[in-house]
Amino acid sequence: MIRNYQDLTRYEMEQVDRANTIVLIPLGALEQHGSQAPLGTDDIIAGAMVKELEKALAEDGETDFPMLMFPVIPVGLSTEHRNFCGSVTLRPDTYYHLLYDISASLVRHGFKKLAFLVCHGGNAPVVQVLSRELRSEFGIAPFILSSGAFDHPDVKATVSEGNIWDFHGGEMETSMVMAVDESLVKLEHSEAGIPTAFTRTKVVKPYGNVSIGWVSEDWKTADGKPIGIGGDPSGATAEKGKIILQTSARVLVPGLKEIRDWKEEPEKD
Question: Would the pTM of this model clear 0.70, i.e. be above it?
Answer without folding.
Answer: yes
